[in-house]
Amino acid sequence: MDKLITVEAYKNIIAEELANASYNQAFGLDQQSDRQQIEARSQLFHTVAPNVLQLCQDMGLTDKEETILRTLWNLWLPLSLELVGERQKLNRPVVQGILGGQGTGKTTLAEVVGLILEELDYTSVTFSLDDLYKSYIERQQLQRYDPRLVWRGPPGTHDVEIGLDLLDKLRQTKRRKPVIVPRFDKSACQGAGDKAQPEVINPVDIIIFEGWFVGVRPVPDNCIFENAPDPINTPEDIQFAKDMNDRLFDYVALWHRLDRLMILFPEDYRLSKQWRTEAEQKMKATGRGGMKDEEIEQFVEYFWKALHPELFITPLIHNPILTDLVVEIKRDRTIRKIYRP
Fold first, then answer.
1. Which pick of 45, 76, 127, 246 has the fewest CB atoms within 10 Å?
2. Mean pLDDT throughout 49-75?
């Protein structure tokens, strides 16, 4: 580990990224930057790098250590420092939204940022859109009312009111009472999932709220679904997409509680099928059950039919009002580009 973080390797990382215009634009670090800013990030890099490498190893990441260190310098560190700055500016807890699909690195990002914030003496908590799912019984009742909701996930399968109450409590300036954070167990009820034991936490500085459609707004014109991309093909598909779009309005109040939104954006949204397949194969390799390839195909396309990435997420990466940061992810899951819309 010490051999990897040599002065020479470290200088190479910084020199290459200082020359990268997209990183400069995203985080304001260039050859003309205040020397103290560069030195502060450099010192923190050396302090947290060993723990970050260990955390990534514990999480089962197969990335090369050099790749992890580059992501630490390019994304995880500057993002953490920005969150600290935003906390000081707002003088209240900050809510960072993270929008990203299967395999884009939401969990890793949240874990590493939490570690860095702890090093900086700031507290944080991460919760997912998944943690807001309605109970198994409630979703069974919902499915009887609307048989198209064969899986959890789309708009309508979450308890938005619980999310609103949670964010309102977490954002309070001088809250002293503990906060109850809901949790969800995906393995419960034969894989259908159910509410788990909630977590009781003390007030925190930074809240990370992640999920596959966190921050996604309804499309204003339903006519767009008439010529939607695959797999929205049949009249039934089009109606389902329209209905899911209507249910998105229930979530807008949640998104209004976000202070910042970043998007983890694959260079091709169809990569989520490949990444989901790889995740299922890893589960099978450990002896746990997993979906067959045809089931994965149906599962992923179900989400595309509900909220198609080209219709709902692509517009957000060009929207400077709603989106603060975009991280483009390559096929090998490394960073292609970081920029602000």
1. 246
2. 89
Q: Are 310 and 58 in contact (CB under 8 A)?
A: no
- How far CA 89 is from CA of 44, 75, 92, 206, in Å, comes to 21, 21, 8, 13
Strand partners, 98: 210, 262
The pLDDT value recorded for residue 1 is 40
Structural contact between residues 175 and 125, judged by C-beta atoms closer than 8 angstroms? no
Residue 25: CB partners within 8 Å, gap ≥ 6? 339, 340
Q: Which pLDDT score is estimated for 4? A: 46
Distance CA 104, CA 211 (A): 11
Please give the domain boundaries of the chain with CATH numbers for all domains.
62-339 (3.40.50.300)
d(CA 104, CA 128): 14
Residue 34 pLDDT: 53
Q: What is the pTM of this model?
A: 0.90
Q: Do the strands 206-211 and 94-100 form a parallel or antiparallel pair, or are they unpaired?
A: parallel
Q: What is the pLDDT of residue 51?
A: 94
Give residue 3's pLDDT.
Answer: 39
